[in-house]
Design brief:
Layout (H helix, E strand, L loop, with lengths): L2 E4 L9 E7 L6 E2 L4 E6 L4 E5 L4 E6 L6 E3 L3 E6 L38 H4 L6 H10 L17 H9 L28 H16 L2 E9 L1 H11 L10 H13 L7 E4 L2 E4 L5 E7 L2 E7 L7 H16 L13 E5 L18 E15 L2 E15 L5 H16 L7
Parallel strand pairs: 12-14, 14-15
Antiparallel strand pairs: 1-8, 2-4, 2-7, 3-6, 4-5, 6-8, 9-16, 10-11, 12-13, 15-16
Length: 408
């Protein structure tokens, strides 16, 4: 009997996704766990794996189609099995009203290709988007030669190799004209739009408060150096790996911070899943270190490194970005003293981490150099209060200042 693959729900607020590319063609054999297609959500481009083995009997939507969560996208059948009455379905051209409630039941409509003017975005592959951003090229200025006019890698490469032209002499550069940059109108992509929408909602609906604590980072930096001397270069631990572990351990003591609000009920999570913000072309993506309080540092490090690599390459998996219960935003690599982050709903709090800096400190009445790091918690006042959040930062500092506790 044939099996139907549906558009997965990736995140509590996802209502639809764009089927960017079919990885498996019709008639091609597929095994359970093989990548069937790539879909683009508000957060990222995600590889969708098949839950069935057999043959891809039929694609039910065209590449570039917007499809509601739960709608059928493909049929997997046994070799030689006949498949009939497969009705193509895609999302309506009008986007449904956004809501934090359960997604609406999808309604089948004829499959169509959404043109750029109607979808509000330029059609381009994830690789082409990344290459264009790296080269400072606007996608709206490129001509796509891929399926349905989609911009692909070769289009970006061709545009990057074409020299700027001037009237009367296309190959000559102006000699004495002072050039000025023109004003551009750049439409928001799905990721940037989603970030803006969610953070506006968070700031408007969540009563944030902020507390900063300065940690002595000297012991952590010394232990990290000692541990990394024993590890291969590609397996060395970052400062952020220690912070993820320390945060997860501290959260065990403060369940109100490892929680979310559901109506008038506080949901205290039984797992500690730490979301780690990763910079990607066009915005931020949060990958999730699951059960971080129970995993060794090397496992946390390897998993986060692998997930971050997939995120930057536009190849995240659904499990990479689902299920966070508390988030960390670390800007320490950008020489940042201190900042505050916006809570990622429905979580109760987020931790902002600054740089480790050498500053003068007073120890036993003597001024001497010391390594210090500022951490700031943004917390939801409906779930916790200042005293509890301050105590959490003290517990976190205990792990940072006595980092050997994270190794046992």
């Amino acid at each position: 009997m044939a099996d139907t693959v549906s558009m997965p729900k990736l995140g509590f607020d996802m209502a639809e996704g764009t089927l960017v590319r079919w990885v498996k063609t019709e008639g091609e054999a597929i095994q359970k766990g093989d990548v069937l297609a790539e879909i683009e959500t508000d957060k990222a481009t995600v590889e969708v794996e098949s839950g069935f083995s057999g043959v891809v009997a039929r694609h039910l939507v065209a590449q570039g189609s917007v499809v509601p969560v739960g709608a059928p996208i493909a049929i997997i059948a046994a070799p030689g099995e006949a498949v009939t009455d497969a009705t193509p379905v895609v999302a309506p051209t009008e986007k449904p009203a956004e809501s934090s409630a359960a997604a609406p039941i999808p309604v089948p409509v004829p499959a169509t290709e959404i043109p750029p003017a109607e979808s509000g975005r330029v059609k381009a592959s994830p690789l082409a988007r990344r290459m264009a951003a790296e080269r400072g090229l606007g996608l709206e200025m490129l001509r796509g030669t891929g399926p349905g006019g989609r911009i692909v890698k070769r289009d970006v490469e061709a545009a990057a190799q074409t020299p700027p032209s001037t009237p009367g002499n296309p190959t000559a550069a102006p000699l004495s004209v002072v050039s000025s940059r023109t004003t551009e109108q750049v439409p928001m992509d799905r990721l940037r739009s989603a970030i803006g929408r969610r953070l506006v909602e968070s700031k408007q609906q969540v009563p944030h408060f902020y507390i900063t604590h300065q940690c002595d980072a000297g012991p952590l930096m010394r232990l990290r150096k000692e541990v990394n001397e024993m590890l291969p270069e590609d397996g060395r631990l970052s400062v952020n790996d220690f912070i993820v572990k320390a945060t997860a351990l501290a959260l065990r003591q403060f369940p109100n911070l490892n929680a979310s609000l559901q109506g008038d009920t506080i949901l205290r999570h039984g797992v500690v899943n730490i979301g780690v913000a990763v910079a990607v072309p066009g915005g931020l993506l949060t990958v999730v270190s699951k059960d971080a309080d129970q995993k060794p540092l090397r496992v946390i490090s390897a998993e986060v490194r692998e997930m971050a690599g997939r995120a930057r390459a536009g190849k995240v998996r659904p499990e990479d970005i689902e299920g966070s219960t508390f988030s960390i935003s670390n800007l320490g690599m950008f020489d940042v003293d201190h900042f505050v982050a916006i809570i990622n709903p429905p979580e109760a709090a987020i931790l902002a981490v600054g740089s480790v800096k050498e500053i003068p400190v007073i120890v036993d009445g003597i001024i001497q150099p010391g390594l210090r790091m500022n951490v700031t918690i943004s917390a939801d006042h409906r779930l916790t209060d200042g005293a509890e959040a301050a105590q959490f930062l003290q517990a976190l500092a205990e792990f940072i200042e006595k980092p050997a506790r994270m190794l046992v």
